[in-house]
Amino acid sequence: ELSVSLPKLGKDEIGGLGESIRVLASDLDILKNERNEFLASISHELRTPLTYIKGYADIARRQDTSDADKDTYLGIIFEESVKLSKLVKELFNLAKMDENTFSIEKEEVHLQPYFQSIVEKVSPALKEHHLELFLECSAGLYAQIDPIRFEQVILNLLDNARKYSEPFTKISLIVSEESGKTHIKVIDQGRGIPEEDLPRIFERFYRVDKSRARSLGGTGLGLAIVKQLVESHGGTVAVTSSKYAGTTFEIVL
Ligand code: ADP
Predict the structure, then answer these.
(1) Residue 228 needs a FRET pair 20 to 30 A away by CA distance; which of 5, 54, 102, 163 works?
(2) What is the ipTM of this complex?
(3) Could you tell me the pTM of the whole model?
């Protein structure tokens, strides 16, 4: 009976099968290339802070370096170490997400107090940059989220809004419910993202202005983590932006 149900492959089908295998194999090649590119990016990203640390440590330990210069160099070494540990931590989190060895523990969360407490947490840091954060969230909204992981999503988006905004502009966090779905928007009035970069900003290590993003303390992984976390909540994240007119990230759960 088994032999009856097996498709008889004619010459065309065999050709078709060969074609599918070829397509599959080239997909695998793409995966392999992506992995190689990713590894190359990682080593580059690790090497950059290490180069600073090594270089400045070397000058700082020279006999003829003044104490004042030493202080400056130690400051740089410290900052670069902070960047390095952030990068390692984020890479580790992404690796865990890739392997699915981390779990999302969803619970029913009352959104108004939840977002209010996030706003209270980040507002002082934003104030230091002369940025004001406004929250708009109606009372009585609930959503099934992992409160800790989802906070990471919002913190990453707010941190970007801070990094890419000019002082004395505003940032809004708007939470609403539309046709049974929760919409969360983070809106800034910052420099915006050029249209040609928009499709790529969720990629790991993709940055519009590499050196500038780096000097702002960015790792290039923030949005990749946002996307992974939102998707593991079963949601979507989208971006709209225009140069110099600000950026909106919208999450739908
Ligand atoms: P980074 O650590 O460099 O901020 P992200 O993954 O968080 O990395 O973001 C990727 C890039 O997208 C950033 O380098 C920046 O160019 C751009 N970007 C992200 N958020 C914003 C924003 N709110 N306004 C302008 N550009 C942004």
Answers:
(1) 163
(2) 0.98
(3) 0.83
